[in-house]
Structures are given as structure tokens and as C-alpha cells.
Amino acid sequence: MPDMMPLSRSLRDLGEGRERAAVVSTLRIEDIVDLPKLQRIQDTFAKAMGVAAVTVDQAGVPVTKESNFQSICRMIRSQPEGLRRCRSCDAAGGMAAFESGRTATYVCSSGLVDAAAPIIIEGEYLGCILCGQVTLIDDREARLEDIVRRVEILGLDHEAVVKAARATPVIARERFDSAVEMLMLTASHIVEVGMTNLAQRRLLQESAEKSAVETSLRDAQLQALQARMNPHFIFNSLTLICYTAFEEHAAKTEEIAYTLSDLLRYSLRNTATTVPLGEEFDMIERCLALHKLRFGDQLTKYLDLEEDLKDTPVPCMILQPIVENAIVHGVESLARPATVRVSAHRKGGRVVLEVFDDGVGMSPEQVRALNDNRILPPIPGRKRPALGLQSVITRLENEFGSRFALAVESGEGKGTLIRLSWTT
């Protein structure tokens, strides 16, 4: 679990940061992140973790719509003084998180437990994503009394306040800690997308004046492909948490949340690095374990990694996009059981990685385009291009040059085999 500040920490203890925050950065969250996409991330996070959430700027002013807000907080914010207090508290919580460089967990000005994760671009603080509006099992009754006492000054109806306070979610500290860890990973993903968008914008401006930016632009375009590819996995997995919690009364939520936390941490921290192939296979094992929870006996998975290849360095996240494609485009629409197999072996002085599914397969035109030109043409009925596989091909071409080879075997209704290889 991440380090947490004591929940008894007061708003004053969080620091007089609101005035400093106003001059930290001239950038705005809405300048670098697509707000509808940010809203979807926030809504899915709040629903999956069972907490309220909102993204605010440096002054505590929301830049997104509230997600899963509690009635007590809506009552408080309906009063001018209550709204001022909440925004000041949100700003101070975000500044505390910024100054510490990690999530800040605290009791808000109205007595509820909240947490803030900072959004920092190139060392500049833009705002934060907040979650909470809960009470903890350990001090539920004392916390409810404190909430009612703190809200009295606003002149709201006492009985309505008591009823609304008692309606606030009560959760275990361990579960809230998990939500806070997921909050930081969500903020990290927002930062990653923002940095990619900012880098693209700057490079495009400079390219009009300098031809020397072509190499940097290629890297920025690659990051953009990765930034657009990663959300598919994040959103699909978070949706799985929601479905499982609803259908099984949270019996599997802890297992899914912890597995997803490991996957997100791997994805967000390592996308630009080289990792041992064994770590990449460990990540794929977790990825397929999540899908196995969803599909049950409908999905069979096999992983086969030769022992002497475990320490072989490979670009991080080269298998996950292809495995995700196998699930989403090869298996998901089937009414019958399906198999996904991932393997790595040596053959004739080459490292060979293979991802196979016995799903719907590709058309002859698509197979020919991939094998001849390494480009997947538009697929009828799909609005978006296949970014995941294209990103993997680009990264391996950049890493291994002419030593890299791609081979695709597929037939409609017969499944697909993607083979990636390079000389050592």
C-alpha cells in the first residue's frame, strides 16, 4: 500500500498552498487532455471503486462533472459558503499531494475522508483528481458526529444533514487504500497522455521551422499510439471490476483490483523501457487471468516461454497489444470456447514470439497487407485503426531494424497466428 498521511490531518495542516498553486503553471488541464476522455476515465474509476471523484484545477475549481457525488456533499456545495470551503479544501489537498509527490489522504473541511492525486506536467502542477466522500469502519459514529458539527454553520436543515451523513458510504481502510493506489495510477495515465499531447503540439510547431525534428516527431507519434492503445486495456479491465462486483456482490473484486493494479503499474512505469522477456510473460499471465475471470470456461490460455529466454531484453509492452487484439477481435464475439496461446522460443539463431488464437480470423487482404507491407488496412465496421499491432511493429522495427521479421497466418473462421522474430 502507498504511504498515507494521517486521516486526522486538518485542512490547515495540508498547507497554505492555494495562493502558491495559482502561479505554479500557466498550463491548464483542458489544454493538454481531451476532457470527454478524462470524464470517461473518472466516471469508470468512481463506479469501479465505489467512491466519489472529480478533477479540479489549481484553485479547486472542477474541470469535469462530479462522478458519484454523495448527497451530503451536494447539500454543502449548494450553499455559497459551503462551495467556497469545498473548493478551498480541494485546492489544499491537491497542493499537499503535489508537494509530497504522492497521494494525500485527509479529512476534508466537512469531515469526510478524501484523497488527492496530483497532475504534474514537466514539474508544473496543473491540478488533481480527487476521490472519497466516505467514512471508515473504524471511526464511523465519531465521524458522523463530526460531519454534522462541521456543517451546522451553513444553516442547513439539521435532520436532512443527519440523514445525508448517515447515507455516506462506509468502507474498510484497506479498501480505501486500494482506491487511493488506483487513483494515483489513474492520475499517472492522465499525465502520460498529457505529456504526449504536449510533446506532439510542440514538435508540430517546430517542424515548420526545422527539418531536424523528424526523428523526435517519430518518437512522439509512437508515444501517441501507445497513449491511445493503453486506455482500451484500462477501460476494459475497470469495466470488468464493475460487472463482477455487481454480479457477485464483490466476491472477486479484491482479486481483480490487485491484479489490475500490478498491470497498470507495469504499463504506466515501463512503456519506454526494455524489460526481461520473463517480466513481459508475467504481465501477459496477469492480463489473461483477468480475461479468464470474465470468460470462464469459454477461454483456454497457454503460455510457453523457453527457460533460456527469460532474461532476453525486449521492448516493454510488445505482447499485450497483440494478446488484447486476440481477445477483443478474435475471441470476444464467438459463441463457442476459444484458445489463446503465447509462446517464445529460439529457432535458427532467431528469437521467435508467437501469439495464436483460434477465433474469427482475418481476411486474405488483411493477411497479405501485413505480410507484404506490415500495415493492417481498415477493417469494415471498425471506426478506429488497429493501433496496437501497428505500434508493436513500429517499435520492433526501430529496435532491431532489418533483423526484425513479421509473419501472419490467418483465415476467416480459422483463427490468427502473429509471429514476431529477430536475429540475436
TrEMBL record:
UniProt-recorded Gene Ontology molecular function terms: phosphorelay sensor kinase activity
Organism: Siculibacillus lacustris
Protein name listed in UniProt: Histidine kinase
Chain ranges of the Signal transduction histidine kinase internal region domain: 220-299
Record-linked SUPFAM superfamilies: ATPase domain of HSP90 chaperone/DNA topoisomerase II/histidine kinase
One Gene Ontology cellular component: membrane
InterPro entries: Bact_2-comp_sensor_kinase, HATPase_C_sf, HATPase_dom, PocR_dom, Sig_transdc_His_kin_internal
Domain PocR: 31-194
Classification via Pfam families: HATPase_c, His_kinase, PocR
Gene3D superfamilies recorded: Histidine kinase-like ATPase, C-terminal domain
Domain Histidine kinase/HSP90-like ATPase: 318-420
